[in-house]
Amino acid sequence: MKYIQWFRLCLFFGLAACHSEMEEEKLRLEIDFEQHWNNSPITPTTLNAYSFENAAGELLSIERLRYLISDLSLGLKDGSQVILKAYHLIDIKSAESLRLSLETYVPLADIQEVSFVFGLNRLANQDGVYPDLNAAVWNVPQALGGGYHFMQLDGKFKAQPTAEAIAYNFHAIQAVDKTAGTALVFEDTFFKVSQQISPQTADQDLTISMNLAEWFVNPHLWYLEKDNSMLMPNFEAQQRMADNGKSVFSIVVKKN
Amino acid sequence: MVRTVFLLVMCSMVWTACKKDQPETITPPAPYVLNIPPLFKEKLIPPVIPIDNPLTEEGVTLGKRLFFEKKLSVDGTISCASCHLPRQAFSDIRAVSLGVQKKEGSRNAMPLFNLAWNYDDRFDWDGKSLGLEAQALEPVTHPLEMQNNWSVVAQSLRANPDYPPMFTAAFGTPVIDSASVTKALAQFERTLISANAPFDRYLMGVGNLTPAQQRGFELFMAEDKGDCFHCHGSENNPLWTDNAFHNNGLDSVFVDLGLGGVTGDPADNGKFRTPSLRNLTRTAPYMHDGRFQTLEAVIDHYSEGLRPSPTIDPLMKKVQQGGVRLTDQEKADLLAFLRSLTENQFGRDITPTN
């Protein structure tokens, strides 16, 4: 009887030790979303003023910024992927949306990269299927193929400092060509962003950073005076947005 | 013998003491099952029900009784239902409501429905109330509304023999105060759900749209036409509001600061919460100050009547042209669609007695 009790005690401590080791393998990732204009921070307190100048020399304000990423993933050395979050809507006015706290049990040594998709890929971009995005009024009209916005960047601009302020609605969606008769022709405008990382400790901070100035310059110089609103049904404008978006994001790894 | 008597006395005292400590048996309130419409279940995330104020049958019943209770006002002349008329989808036919002694308020009474789906939980035209319970606090003491104070309200309700048992049934205690009254009112308000308009039936496949309604919906959803969907949602957001705050170009100079009066941020001046488009034909007049008597006037405003200001929402992109410039036919089509969002029966069966 005494030996059985000793056996139970040893088993308990043994399991407890194993559990503790497993706990240590749990990787906690804090992911911050930061927005800036050529390193000048964009926060709720910097909205509304004509503080930013695009490459075309236009002064602009930012009043609303929301964007969607999806397939936030860890790429492993064996070539496989672990999805951390299927999709995430960032709203610059919602502090809650600007920080993600995620946990994974992937061994540190196996991690090779972090990646995400700007917007939703064609398979995921189904009409009305995400209740939280519906609740956020994030949908794209069915006449444009349905699905969801990828980004809403709204504000006002002045072509010259003394010019009248004009509204802009820089809304990114899947490009759709409505000119080919009744059938809609789609072109993908989502794109993948990835960054090699080598985490050394269990607690890592990642920052996903968006430089909004890049939306207006690289590779296409963007004149808001020419293209400022009603861009959702503008097939060619959506293509240029997607091209420019590819230099917008960076992912930085920080030890916390 | 003496020892035995002493023991019996002691036992009796202990028994009595224990008995006193035992609470009276109170039947817990029965959970109220919110009848969530199929479209809401399919398209939206669950409603907001505060952990500290779950819906119960008794709470909702009490809240409904209080909604019609005129003793909430200082002179016993008005209740919540005086300005939020059930037959008007819980809105008022007046531009601004009348409080006690017929004092005019400053804003139009918002209709009450689907309030549990306001995910930011900010209520009133200017968003000053965080949560429905907080919203229900204000009218009772507002000098242009009920002009009462909460201790008088509590005293009046306690004097009515109906109420203490109702509060006990709802909250497990006969205590009547501002917290318990507003909790009950909020519970009742969360049960006011409107989701059975002709357009809902069309979406559920049990109704059709007229050609004009269909054209109006397409116009509503077109960014280069009405562009209404960015603020008022779509068939995928059957609330028909984003519950957010926008300056929709009503004024160039603001008499009422709206959200700006709450946040103190000049960038919020002239912004008001987007109202739902449901039940529009029953909720005239329109806008925060009830300035438009008809839906035609509202459509004209967005078509030709926008006024510029520094805080006008960028979504009012055609302000330089006065608005989106709809033709008469387009206006008629849009109106036809908007009317399809009205549920004629909503609220009509809610009376003080049923």
- Residue share in helices of chain A? 10-25%
What portion of the residues of chain A fall into strands of 2 or more residues? 35-45%
Assembly form of the protein = heterodimer
Q: Rough shape of chain A? A: globular
Helix content estimate of chain B: 25-40%
Question: Largest beta sheet of chain B, briefly?
Answer: 2 strands, antiparallel
Task: Provide mean pLDDT of chain A, rounded.
Answer: 89
- Low-confidence blocks of residues of chain A: 9-23
Rg measurement of chain B, Å: 25 Å
CATH architecture of the largest domain in chain B: Orthogonal Bundle
CATH topology of the largest domain in chain B: Cytochrome Bc1 Complex, Chain D, domain 2
- Tell me, what's the shape of chain B? globular
CATH class of the largest domain in chain B: Mainly Alpha
CATH superfamily of the largest domain in chain B: Cytochrome c-like domain
| Global structural class of chain A | alpha+beta
**End-to-end distance of chain B:** 66 Å
**What is the beta-strand fraction of chain B?**
under 5%
Of all chain pairs, the largest interface belongs to: A-B, 32 and 33 residues
Helical/strand content category of chain B: mainly alpha
Q: Segments of chain B where pLDDT lies below 50 for 5+ residues?
A: 16-20
**Arithmetic mean pLDDT of chain B:** 94
